Amino acid sequence: MLDGSAEAKAFDDKEYVKLHQSTLRKVDCLQTILERTASGSLKNNSKFYDIYGISPQGIAEMIKDNWLIGLLWTGITLILGGYIGSLF
Prior knowledge:
This protein is mainly α. The protein folds into two domains: 1-43, no CATH class; 46-88, no CATH class. The protein has five helices and no strands.
């Protein structure tokens, strides 16, 4: 994979095979990233709060993305709803 200045030099030197190979390598890297993103197997070093944040919308997204947390949240809201309903 050539960087910008190396690609410009290769173009000036009419080394079109190097340019083509560089382009193919970049496309291959992008394809790998997109495939892993689509399949959910892309690994990164993000922390939990970097992904979801600490906001109501972030918490809702976390619950939606993780079935176990969603199940726990449903159980907690049902129990609290039953308890608060019995008070009235």
